[in-house]
What does this fold into?
Amino acid sequence: MDLTGLSSKGRLLLVFCVSIFLYTSTDAEGSCKLKAKFNLRGYKEVLKRTVVVGGMFPVHQRLVDTDANTTIPPESSDCEGFNFRAFRWTQTMLFALNEINDRPDLLPRTELGYVIYDSCFTISKAVEGTLTFLTGQDEAVPNYRCGDGPPLSALVGAGGSDLSIATARILGLYYFPQMSYCSSCSVLESRFQYPTFLRTIPSDEHQSVAMAKLVLHFGWTWVGTIAAEDDYGKYGIKRFKEVVEEAGVCISFSETLPKISNPEAMERIAQTVLDSTAKIIVVFSSDVDLKPLLDELLRNNITNRTWIASEAWVTSAAISRHPDILPVLGGTIGFAVKQAEIPGLKEHLLGVSPYNDTLTEEFWGIVFNCTLSYRQVMRGMKRCTGEEMIETLNNTYSDVSQLRITYNVYKAVYAVAYALHNLETCVPGSGPFENGTCADINKFEPWQLMYYLKNLQFTVPHTGEHIFFNDGDVDGFYEILNWQSDSDGEITYSHIGYYNSSAPADDRLIINNASIIWNNDVLETPRSVCSERCQPGTRMGIRQGEPVCCFDCIPCADGEITNTTDARGCLQCDEDYWSNANHDECVPKTIEFLDFSEPLGITLIAIAAFGALAAIVVVIIFLMHLNTPLVKANDPLLSFSLLLGLVITFLSSIVFLGEPQKWSCMTSQVALAVGFALVLSSLMGKSSLLMLRARAVKAVKSATRAAKAAAAAAEQSPDTEVIAPAIPQKNDVDPIHPRHQRAMMIVGTLIQAVGCTVWLILMPPHPIKNTAAQNIKIILECDIGNIIFICSIFAYDILLALLAFAFAFVARKLEDHFNEGKSMTFGMMVFFIVWISFVPAYLSTRGKFMVAVQIFAILASSFGLLACVFIPKCYVLLVKPERNTVEMMIPRVKSRDAGVSLATNSSSANGTTVSTVSLDG
Ligand code: TRP
It folds into this structure.
């Protein structure tokens, strides 16, 4: 250690101090021992200086690995891995101090001295340095500062955030100011925990938010993160994650880079990067910690990723000057702190002399691959001449193209100097301290300097940047850099935008997208999503156990839609709406009913009209032949009522067509029911007469047979008196009068009419929209009001039909010349067949075709009846009028022995036609 300032006088003082410590200590043993010997390297210049400024830089990257052997006294480790970049920072501090000492306007009466230690990028070394620094001697004696050297002002350092956190804890105890140039971790914002910590680098709070904004700016929702295993990495990534996750971005993987070399961990991380579908990887780490991963990435040739760099590695030559790096890290986007040019720095850097101190000596040896140590020369190493041309060196140390952290060091030294300047120029009486007093530059307390640092405002020389601390922190300003390749295939940092945390929210991130060169084959903005967006018509379906950004797009069910992309759920269409084919819009359901104007409707109307017309034609024919025996044979009034009923049923079928209305619903069923009741009760009336006639004929037949048998018996035994059975006499064959028939017809119809009226009043049928039967259609139909009513009303019709059929069936063999009984039986059978087959047909159809089936049944059964009952009569009336005679009307008894015939006498009584059957011979 090159602590040249430690004179024999100083040593004496140390002994004095320690004795005081012993004296005041309550330790019972009454002696004190130095328990550890630190091993620190650095620069020191305190002789004849008024004030001393402390500094701490990670000139080495790590401690030498010593085996934990407890059989010998432990020693403070040595450091290894010389860091040219940090060495440049150290030299910059010396440069700035020289510059300040040379300035007549800044601290004119004060010479600044310095004590600078190498923190070796390790917390333990940083703590060693801090303790030693506070003691003011080579040995650390906590709580004492010994010697009469110049007062210590502040510490510039200590490098990485975790080092600064450790030193700031100790320095805070003594209220000793610390001015950091690169410790950006957000936890250092806390003035409660770190009361004397200030910095010239913005807090990572801004950087993490800026990175998150960048990710959101490009619409990336699937990113991987890698953090160094220190406070910088962990807190930086933590805040980044918080912001992006709040905005719906998912983290594909989160890895930490170990501080201690661990090849397996590196392999695992590289494999994770390779396996992940995330194309964007955010890395919060220093270049030193990232380097091993980089080697692994190169070995695996992991390309086609876009890396987001934090300020600690974005302009690191150790990363970007790595050979073959372009395919892997080309296109990287990173955040860098402000850059500046410092005139004269290059000359200072090149002007170092190898003979001044051990650090420079080591530097010299490494860059020129020689040694200044006699012992090493003896071992055969090349000897340095000390005249090597450092100007020819093309090394990170002498590269002053990216002075960013270097510029922060420069600013930090100046901040301390300006604070001291303010302290020195304080006018007694108007000073900031008690009673307007000032502090004395030759023996001030650290808290007094702290006051000046807190309230400091100054302009940085050469760059003109205005600096002030806002509770120890500076504004968050970053340049956004893109790694592009120049003509030689080397990486250049291209400026593509900036982030300014003090700008209005919308203008904070300014990026020129066009100037970015991406690291992919297509040269366009990469996409990084876990699942592609869900188009309208589909919804996002979560995948169990995966982040929310990974989902499946599930098509909406029928009747449901989504009209936005990435919809979380489908929306049910309103009652009268249904989804279209793409499921992205609700369209009105098609309204369905059997319309008059469609072909089926027109056909049905035509058939119904034809049927009604045919019935009317029959009425006309009957009216024209009203007085003929055939018409008169069975009460013509009943024929007319039957025909009227048929006309009603034909016409009622038309009412079933068209859009259902209240009136049409009410009339259609009722007209049908009453129409059928009229038809069937008329038929019943007619067939009841026929039945009675048939029975009469049967009675005559058996009487005749009995009479004949009696006559034969009389011939054989004339003595015996045979009582001939009474042969039924004429005219009492028709036991019912047309009056009765009509009454049957009227009563039959009336019952139905009353039933229907009750139904209409209590629970009338009404139109409804049936949306349940078919999804895509609204079927307009009639709700029958009450199922019991409609059933009983049609059951009544069935009853009438059965009666009519039964009567006709009995009379079917009655042989009049136009076979009325037979044709009625046949008509009724057609009627039954039609309605029986209607049931399955009706139940198996849907929508408007149900109406069509119903109409068909009505028409078919009506036509059946019309045709069966009236065609034979009309045939006789029109084609064979010669058969239309009274004789032909008489039912014949169709038997070999029968000379019996039923003659129908018609006479007019009470203005009504009365049929009687007379029995001749
Ligand atoms: N910002 C880092 C931290 O807080 C330190 C840092 C910045 C750094 N730039 C660097 C470390 C370059 C090494 C190299 O920890």
User: Anything to note?
Assistant: The two ends are 164 Å apart (CA to CA). Residues 1-29, 724-732, 895-921 have pLDDT under 50 and may be disordered. The chain is about 45% helix and 15% strand. Residues 160-161, 182-185, 232, 286-288, 311-312, 405 surround tryptophan (CB under 6 Å).
